[in-house]
Amino acid sequence: MAKAAATPKTIHVKVISPSQVFYEGAADSVSAKNKVGNFDILPNHAHFFSLLTEGDIVVKTSGQQLRFPAQHGIVKVTDNVVTLFIYLPDN
Questions:
Q1: Structural domain span for residue 64
Q2: What SS3 state is found at 10?
């Protein structure tokens, strides 16, 4: 009998803007907001692509909760890799 593949317990997250990488590494979850409302991305999430609306991107790692304010952006989820391209609020 074949063993089932281990289920990943984390996702790989990359939060970037046109000018810098804010975070790249493992995370337990990502929370963000789109036109429909707030959403969460957990390990083994379905493939997903969405425009982001204004609000905080929250990346939860073991022991930390990182917040990145976003004016707008795009999120792409594929095979436990989450990439968020964000634009910061104008100062």
A1: 11-87
A2: coil
Q: Count structural domains, the chain.
A: 1
String of b and e for 54-66 (b: at least 16 CB within 10 Å)? eeebbbbeeeeeb
- The residue with tokens 């804010």 is 22
Residue 15 lies in a domain: yes
Model pTM score? 0.87
Query: 77 and 8 in contact (C-beta within 8 Å)?
Result: no
Residues facing 85 on adjacent strands: 16, 74
Q: Tell me how far the alpha carbon of residue 8 is from its chain's centroid.
A: 16
Is residue 8's pLDDT more than 80?
A: no
24 three-class SS:
strand
CATH number at residue 57: 2.60.15.10
Residue 4 lies in a domain: no
Q: Report the mean per-residue pLDDT for the chain.
A: 92
Answer whether residue 2 is part of any domain.
no
